[in-house]
Amino acid sequence: MTLVYSSSDKQTSADSICQQLNINPKDLASAEQIHGNGIIVITAEDRGKKVPQVDALITKEKNLPIMIRTADCAPILIHDTKREILALVHAGRKGTALKITHKIITKLKDEFSSDPKDLTVKIGPCIDKCCYPMDLRRENKEQLLKAGVPEENIKINKECTKCNNHKYFSYRGDGPHTGRMFLIAAMIDGPVHA
User: Domain 2-188 belongs to what topology?
Assistant: First the structure.
């Protein structure tokens, strides 16, 4: 099993990411993203669907790509390397305040017997404290640490989406009609040619 993932910038579409990862875009399962703390477990029946009322996805399904979209909110990828579980979190101000990241780690522990020491986490580009009153990176990292994820297992992209809105979509920098960046991930059986 191989974990494949990619995130976009202003120059990359979801379709081009899928092509790069050798994934059919029609297979993508995604979250509606309502700026809450709803989490759902994605199964084969969710292939190609946008799941309503959630901001985070978990799957154990192989060859089933999952996706979230962001434009300043923190995109978070969580991978349980021992139990082969994948999760994506859309963590904006409200979701972060509602402890969505801590909640998903708790769900992984309670429902899948994940050990936080086996989790690797990547927090992608998001708006930073220089441009926003809440430090999304720090708040979500703290939730991960409090849930038991070792600090050395957490990788953080430090680019601010608003400061770098020439490169990333930024709701605060570009306005409400800006585009969205995509985080797409899947656990693939067999060889990967990406």
Answer: CNF1/YfiH-like putative cysteine hydrolases (3.60.140)
